[in-house]
Design brief:
Blueprint: H1 2-18, H2 28-44, E1 48-52, E2 57-61
Antiparallel strand pairs: 1-2
Length: 64
């Protein structure tokens, strides 16, 4: 998991450099947005189930 996250951060920085955007760092919001996008895609693809808890949400993989 850490390697995937580090790869994303490096790719985001490289993307910003190529676009000549400054500053070229990756923000925590960039990471959160990608995390949310990935979870949404897993849900749309039917790979996970999501539900409500008292303080947040639960996530479990779907069988199959």
């Amino acid at each position: 998991m850490e390697d995937v996250l580090l790869q994303f951060i490096k790719a985001k920085i490289e993307e910003r450099k190529k676009a000549k955007k400054h500053p070229t760092f990756c923000t925590l919001e960039d990471v959160r947005a990608e995390y949310t996008r990935a979870l949404n895609q897993l849900w749309k693809d039917g790979k996970i189930e999501v539900g409500e808890t008292i303080n947040g949400k639960w996530i479990i993989p779907k069988n199959g």
